[in-house]
Amino acid sequence: MKKLIPTTAIAALLLGALPAAQADTLKMECNVSGPMKPYCEYVKQRFEYETQHKLEFLEMPAASDEKLSIYQQIFAAKDGNAVDVLSVDVIWVGLLDKHLLDLTDKVKDLEPHFFPNNWKNNIVDGRIKGVPNNVDAGMMYYRKDLLEKYKEQPPKTWEELTRIATKIQQAERGAGQKNFWGFVFQGKAYEGLGCDVLEWVASYNGGNFVDPQGNITINNPKAAKGLNMAASWVGTIAPKGVLGYQEEESRAVFQNGDALFMRNWPYAYLLTQADSSPVKGKVGVMPIPKGGDDGIHAATLGGWQWAVSAYSKNPDAAVKLVRILADEKTQKTKFMVTGEAPARVAAYADPDVQAKAPHLAQFKDVFANAVPRPSTPTRSQFPKVSKVMFNAGYDVLSGRSTGEKAVAEVEERLKRIKGREWK
Ligand code: GLC
Asked: Per-block average pLDDT, block size 10, for the chain (423 residues)?
């Protein structure tokens, strides 16, 4: 038996493998028990084959704000066993800064491959804290077949969308589709509603709540108008149940053929085109409408980044994993499995990507010009700011407040959070 040991060691060296004793087990965030499974498994296979380490998964809730509080607990406990590589929302990078490993020297060579605004978002005080995974910007999905049937064009403004949705909802119900709705979006009080609210406000030129210099700008009539417009949809062209919808609930209604318009992120497209989808081949995508003719097409900037926990016990292996996650093949696999818009620019010229989502290439500009939530100017106080944003949206949508009252209250609340300055 003794003779076998050196032989195995030599074989391992020849194969470039690490001796078994040094194989580490890493934990990466990936929801392997859901539709992401093939992607999680692809990553596991590559990582284990290429590094001889083991990979396990950490499953997380879908809502960004719920995920954030779990990570904040893990980080407060400096827990090095809970996670090595995590997925960080575009709005958290500054906030989680001190809990994320400095990746500057390990990944800076990757910069030219990514969208510049996404890449820059991950730099805090000159240090790279994450590598982009996917880019997100709000989009409006519509039923091509129904707009054609009723001889309507994709609407350019919220006013037009409201008119068309009212008309087609009534006609489809009259034709026997009793559960048909004009428009579904994210109306639950969580981070996703904050994204929709920002689009309504910004599309009427009502600003970003807080400007890049940290000034609170929300208390203005244009912002109030955007909120009032959204409130007018609930119970008319949108079901009251929209007040409990996250992204996936909106998609379920739209994909079932029960809605004309849906506000969502890029991922939803591929799922609506699955063979089992009742709306396969019937879906168009357009920019978020403007608030009136003088408004702008405002898409909230979203997206996720891969980062390494500063408490990881295996930082070198974790960096290897991040580099696998960020490479061309993995980015494409992720798109094919999840439909998430790739963060690598070259993916948009890939024939397979173009064939699956022909509209994506046109959305490159929308990604590049998307409206950021005020996470940078409000610094570590952004989670509180975000709660004020989505709670105000919820109050207006549910009829407890009006646009005018809400923007005045939001201003007061934000002033209290800010104090003398954002910190
Ligand atoms: C998407 C976006 C993310 C946002 C979240 C809200 O995942 O990428 O930035 O916070 O939706 O639900």
From this structure: 44 48 90 96 98 97 95 97 97 95 98 92 94 97 98 98 98 97 98 98 98 96 98 98 98 98 97 97 98 97 97 98 97 96 94 94 87 93 97 98 98 98 94
Within this chain, domains 24-129+302-368 and 139-300+374-418 share the same CATH topology: yes
- Ligand 1 neighbour 90 (Cβ under 6 A): yes
Q: What span, in angstroms and rounded, lies between the C-alpha atoms of 271 and 91?
A: 25
Domain coordinates in residue numbering, the chain: 24-129+302-368, 139-300+374-418
Specify the 3-state DSSP secondary structure of 397: helix
Distance 170 CA to ligand 1 centre (A): 32
Nearest CA to ligand 1 atom 2: 302
The two tokens of residue 11 are 């074989």
Which CATH code fits 24-129+302-368?
3.40.190.10
Report H helices in 279-420.
315-325, 328-338, 351-356, 364-368, 375-378, 382-397, 403-418
Q: Just give the CATH number of 139-300+374-418.
A: 3.40.190.10
Give the ligand 1 atom nearest the CA of 300. 9
